[in-house]
Amino acid sequence: MAKRKRLTPPQPDYFDGPAPETKAMFPLGVAPAPISRVTGDAAAAAALREVAAELTSARREGRLVQHLALERIEADWLIRDRLDTDAEELDSLIASLRSHGQRTPIEVTELPSGQYGLISGWRRLAALRRLHAETSDTRFGTVLAVLRRHDSAEDAYVAMVEENEIRQALSYWERARIAAKSVEAGIFASEKIALQRLFATASRAKRSKIGSFLSLYHSLQTLLRFPAALPERLGLALARDLESDAALAPRLAETLQACVPDSAEAEQALLAAMLDRGGSASAASELGSVSVAATTAHRAAPQSSPAGAEIRPGLFLVTRGGRLILSGPALGPELRLRLESWLRAGA
Question: What is d(CA 170, CA 160) in angstroms, rounded to the nearest whole number?
């Protein structure tokens, strides 16, 4: 029988597997085409550049919280605006950090030396340093911080003051002091400019009061022991009288040096007495000694449970050997003066 004629040519061996155009459907074990590799590498590189740029931008704009070693923070890079740190508040902050860790970052700026200058968060930094010194725990060896970039030292001072005004208002004395200190440091050309820049958001009346405390600061900065506690009303009265009576400053200096009040209340009572008596050093000295003695007696009593009866909120009365002793947080200079006037009128 004659063989049939083959109508199709024989297929090569490589057609035993999938057709070449279908290999992309089976990527396992099959190398991608060169153009796919180039495209993928370019996309990955672009994504990495985008992430790096975003991280750099977030760090520069203060949107990135960083862990910084405590020793890299220069706490005194700026002259601090707040004078006093309440020991009880600091202890509470330390207890919170010990239990829960740091929740709010501090603000720093990068210095040419590679260190970081502290702008705000002095209390948090101080608390962490105490914890680390006491425990050596690595948890307290770093601080959470955000980086702030300022074009000038002026901007850094403004940022520090604004932060403290928001969190806990500065006293008028502290406001005046930082204005004067910033001028002394050459940050601002004059105290007027310092007031305008540091307290730009304050009302004109408030800046005027800070200006009055500036004159008080220059007259009494070396004499007052508790200046940050000076009330607004008493400070403004002192500033007014110092401006009108050039001889008042020396009399105040003499009295304060002679009496040496050991509490803010005693110091304020002494200053109020000087104003009430027209600056009489002898009368103010006598009243100041009584005030200091009363304050010392109050401090000697147990503070957790004040002795005597609470005759009004925050005011305690103690009777000892024919003496009446008033004590408590409500005993301020104004109450003392009203009481004195009442006693004199009834005598």
Answer: 11
The reported pLDDT for the residue numbered 216 is: 92
CA–CA distance, 89 with 254 (Å, rounded to integer): 35
Domain C-terminal end among 119, 140, 169: 169
Same domain, 125 and 228: no
Amino acid letter, residue 295:
T
Report the candidate in 308, 256, 245 with the shortest Cα–Cα distance to residue 287.
Answer: 256
Domain boundary among 134, 169, 204: 169
Give the angle 235-190-153 at the CA atoms, nearest 5°. Answer: 105
- Give the ranges where 101-231 is alpha helix by DSSP (H): 122-135, 153-167, 172-184, 191-198, 204-220
**304, 274 in Cβ contact below 8 A?**
no
| Cα 167 from chain centroid (whole Å) | 7
If pLDDT is split at 50, 70 and 90, which confidence band does 179 have?
very high
State the residue range of the domain holding 112.
58-169
Q: Using CA atoms, how far apart are residues 175 and 182, in angstroms rounded to an integer?
A: 11
pLDDT(282) > 70: no
Predicted local distance difference test score (pLDDT) of residue 192: 93
Terminal C-alpha separation, the chain = 156
CATH of the domain at 155: 3.90.1530.10
Mean pLDDT of 72-95: 81
Instruction: Measure CA 323 to chain center.
Output: 44
Evaluate whether residue 40 is within a structural domain: no
Residue 123, SS3 per DSSP: helix
